[in-house]
Amino acid sequence: MDNNEEGQIIDTETQTSFFDKISLKLIILNHIQKISNICCKELVSGYWENQYRVVNGLRMDSKVWHPDSRKEYINAVNFFHDCMLPYFDNKAEEIIKTIESKPDYLKDSETELKYKRLIFRELILLFKRKNELSREVYIDE
Questions:
Q1: Strands (E) located in the chain
Q2: CA 85, CA 119: separation in Å to the nearest integer?
Q3: How far is it, in rounded angstroms, from Cα 93 to Cα 122?
Q4: Cα dist. 97→67, 102, 134 in Å?
Q5: How far is it, in rounded angstroms, from Cα 31 to Cα 39?
Q6: Which DSSP letter does residue 1 get?
Q7: What value does the mean pLDDT take over residues 42-55?
Q8: Residues near 51 by Cβ (< 8 Å), separated by ≥ 6?
Q9: Which residues partner with 52 through β-bridges?
Q10: Is residue 115 within a helix (H) or strand (E), and if so which, with residue range?
Q11: pLDDT higher than 90, residue 79
């Protein structure tokens, strides 16, 4: 969408927006890519970093927050799980229910991360079982 279209009112009866053309499959594939990007970094807890810069000869101190990448991963997998719900089969439902019923499932971030990785793997297998990875993704113009 370019800047000229941002503030315009669209007549939904006669015109479809870009988002109407995006399939759930494309959203899921993009989200899998985002999860992959999160996983390419070290999954660490959030922390503050002291930074400074010199402006006009004066030292300016500031603190920068680096988010908890473990929680980012967990939230991303939760969203992926929600997107895949309409496609759940008995196998996926049973495996994920078993994982989520573990007594230490939400014990701490490290334990939850371990279980979310198992859930993510099962969701990818479900995606493959539904044969979604073998079809082409396209957007009608």
A1: 47-55, 58-66
A2: 13
A3: 10
A4: 29, 9, 27
A5: 12
A6: -
A7: 90
A8: 61, 62, 63, 64
A9: 61
A10: helix 109-129
A11: yes
Position 21: which residue type? K
CA 49: distance to chain centroid?
A: 25
- Tokens for 139? 């957007």
pLDDT in tens, 101-133: 998 888 888 889 999 999 999 999 998 888 765
- Helix 24-39 vs helix 109-129: crossing angle, to nearest 10: 140
**Cα 52 from Cα 13, distance rounded (Å):** 54
What CA–CA distance (Å, rounded) separates 84 from 90? 13
Residues 27-31, mean pLDDT to the nearest whole number: 86
Q: Which two tokens stand for residue 69?
A: 């990448």
Report the interhelical angle of 109-129 vs 90-100 (nearest 10°). 180
